[in-house]
Amino acid sequence: MTDSIYDLAVIGAGVMGLSAAFIAASSRPGDRIVIFDRETVGAGASGFAPGIQINIGRNEKERSLLNRGTKIWREIYPHGRPGGRDCDVLWLTRDPEELTRTSCVVSTVPSTSFALRERLSSLPQFLIPSDIVVALDRGSYCPVNSIVQDLAQRLGAVGTSIRERTSIARIRQRPSHLLLESSDHSELLARRGVLAIGPWLPDSPLRAHLAKEPRLRVKKVVALHLAARPTTNCPMIGLFDDYAFLIPMIEEGYWLFSFTSQEWDVRPDPGGLHVSSDDLARATAILTKWFSPDIPAVASARAFCDCYSDDGVPFSRPAQDVAGLYVIGGGSGNGFRFGPACAEEAIGSLYSHHR
């Protein structure tokens, strides 16, 4: 009977769930691991995210998650992430003190310097007002879908079972293991479990395993693809005061404009989420601060959603009613940056206390 029990079951094949599985498989290569996803690998928020890695942390908790997450990614990808690009980040702000408080900025660059204007030549109408402080840092970006597909391939190569289009409906406690029941009433046994289902968590019956706090909501995440082809030396541009980003997608041939949507309590339905007139108005209001006389045309757009906690910081918490189960989530659009640290915390605790 024990041969049929998995050492670890992960529910959710996004970047958080796959990070947890990969950390477990790397530290305990002989363990039997299974991953479930209601759709396919990376079909949720991970499939749409640009994977921005920036040195910004609003508080000590975020800075800790960032530092640990960065270390984990370097261990997983010592030679660089697939499809990723390291680059300069130019932060533009009228509040340099706040930027300094929340980041590890290297230096400032005069906004009128020739070198700066040359590097932004693919955005000829992009103007930097004289009262703007330009701070230079390093960062990177990598489509998160390329990460999750690579992690899934590497996990499969070492024997991890990945079961797509399989929804887990119930998780019950047994004396020495967990009993997972799928929506088609098939059952599976595991010694430990990680629940990482992203924006599906708030409305899932599995939400009951997490205490009422933190309060969870789902918010739309949007980005526009601007019809301007970046050059090979383009930096990423961080519009700090609006927490928006211009990311040079060099291979794809467009600038990605990532900004904050304010549409809350949406459902994680890829076919039902679109860029709204309110989203476009918010984007235009930000872009018109920087482009004159006209902003670049919008070639296309992307929209999905993510789960947000009260404080906007991802979490890793033991289930309140099932021993051996951890819930990680609340990616808040930052699952790539902060998720691996949450996954590491969950795996470390599970293997320390549930042998």
TrEMBL record:
Gene3D superfamilies tied to this protein: D-Amino Acid Oxidase, subunit A, domain 2 (3.30.9.10), FAD/NAD(P)-binding domain (3.50.50.60)
UniProt GO molecular function: oxidoreductase activity
Segments passing through the bilayer: 6-25
Keywords: Membrane, Oxidoreductase, Transmembrane, Transmembrane helix
Residue ranges of every copy of the FAD dependent oxidoreductase domain listed in the record: 7-345
Entry GO CC: cytoplasm
Record-linked InterPro entries: FAD-dep_OxRdtase (IPR006076), FAD/NAD-bd_sf (IPR036188)
Protein name as it appears in the record: FAD-binding oxidoreductase
